[in-house]
Every structure is written in C-alpha cells, then in structure tokens.
Amino acid sequence: MTAEPAALTAEAGGPAGPAPVPAAPPTPLEMRRAMGAFATGVTVVTGVDGGEAVGFACQAFASVSLEPPLVLFCADHGGRTWPRIRASGRFCVNVLGEDQVDLCGRFGSGTGRKYDGLDWDLSRWGTPALRGVLLRVHAEVSDVHAAGDHDVVIGRVLEVEAGAGRRPLIFFRGRFGVDARQAPGPAAEPAGVPDLWGWGDRWG
Fold first, then answer.
1. What share of the chain is helix, strand, coil (3-state, %, to 5)?
2. What is the dihedral of CA 53, 54, 58, 62, to 10 degrees?
3. Which of 124, 136, 126 is nearest to 94 (CA)?
4. Which pLDDT value is given to residue 15?
5. What is the pLDDT of residue 41?
6. pLDDT tier at 6 (50, 70, 90 boundaries)?
7. What's the rounded Cα separation, in Å, for the pair 152 and 133?
8. Of 3, 14, 52, 131, which has the maximum CB count within 10 A?
9. What tens digit of pLDDT does each residue of 9-63 get?
10. What pLDDT sits at residue 192?
11. Does the global pTM surpass 0.85?
12. Terminal-residue alpha carbon distance, the chain
C-alpha cells in the first residue's frame, strides 16, 4: 500500500510550508527608512504652465521602455506643481550632478521662487532646461496611473540631451553621496537633509 502524497502548494508544486505569520505593514517612517537602502539618482522635473516655469525635485524616476521610448516619474497627490505640468502635457527631467545639491534644495523646498536668479533655457519643446545637468529627458505625458498617495506618470520621450560628463548626485541612507562610513542599518535622519525617499512633488 502506497503512502498518500504530501499536500502540494498550488504555485510551487512542492510541499506546503507553514502558514505565514500575520504581520502589520510598515509605517510610512519604516517604509521610508527601509527604502533608503536603495541608492538613487536625483532629478528635477520641469514644465511651463500659463507662461510660468515650474518644477520639483524628484527621486522616483526610471526608464520604462526603449521601443517606444518611455520613462516614468512619481508625483505626490498633494503636490502643487505636478497638476500644472500635467495640464501643460510636457515635461523635462533634469538629472543632477553631484555638485548640484543646491538645485535639489531649491526645487525641493516649499518656499521661495525656484527660478529666481537661476540660469536656464527654454527647450524646443517649451520646457525649462536646467544648465550643467548630466542629462535632460524631454517627454510628453502619455499615461497617469494612481498608486496609493502618488501618481505614476508615464512619459513618451521626445528627445534626450546628454550634458556634463561627471559624477551623478546620489541619495543613499538619508544622505547625498555614498560614504563608506554610513552604517548598514536604518539610521537616524541627518539634520539639514530633506526627506528624499519617494520625493515626487511633495512640496510643489
């Protein structure tokens, strides 16, 4: 007489494991600190609305497709700038170099006029092109998908412009740059450095 086969899981086809232990999802603070372990570049997304140049600092940017050429960025539902860029239909993603922390702070701040005293150009696509950046990606809004407290914006790329050939601005574990002295675990957030994880027009 043969033994009965062990219970199988529907997905893996192997023996069923123990039932998962229920756990609460991470809090926003826990999520932000955990995702800080993923080093990213930093960008400024710019556009023009009603003749006024607008823009916001954005960490959540990525390439999506080569054919057709698509990119994405994420923008906070509570931001003031993204609705204006969405209305205009076009944007430019300006990828920052490591010496452009001041630009990041300027466009990540909720106070002050972001373009005051700043040298910039109007691109052929009608969007602000910041000077001295590593890369400019000109695109038009193709699709927008609501996802939690952010919109995921898909852009169809119109043109890419390579800029200065130097090191990028990196954000990692709550700091700009990658420092060997940074502790491998969740760290206290350093004073004077903005909360960049998931930065997508939080302050507009």
1. 10, 35, 50
2. -60
3. 136
4. 63
5. 92
6. very low
7. 24
8. 131
9. 445 555 666 777 788 888 877 777 776 666 789 999 999 999 999 999 998 999 9
10. 44
11. no
12. 72
Give percent of the chain above pLDDT 70.
77
What percentage of the chain reaches a pLDDT higher than 90?
54
Domain range for residue 172? 28-60+74-138+159-176
Q: Is residue 130 part of a domain?
A: yes
E-strand stretches of 59-202: 61-65, 70-76, 90-95, 120-122, 128-130, 135-147, 150-162, 170-172, 175-176
Look at residues 21, 59, 22 and name the one whose alpha carbon lies nearest to residue 40.
59
Q: Is 122 among the domain residues?
A: yes
With 0-12 / 13-18 / 19 or more C-beta atoms within 10 angstroms meaning exposed / middle / buried, residue 23 is exposed
Cβ-proximal residues to 73 (8 Å cutoff; 6+ apart), any chain: 43, 45, 58, 60, 61, 62, 93, 153, 155, 200
Tell me the pairing of strands 70-76 and 52-58: unpaired
Give the position of tokens 């033994």: 3
Both tokens of residue 110?
Answer: 């909720």
Domain assignment present for residue 46? The answer is yes
Side-chain-side CA neighbours of 107 within 13 Å: the count stands at 30
> Which tokens in the block code for residue 157?
């790329």
Q: What is the CATH number of the domain that holds 42?
A: 2.30.110.10
Bridging pattern class, strands 70-76 and 150-162: antiparallel
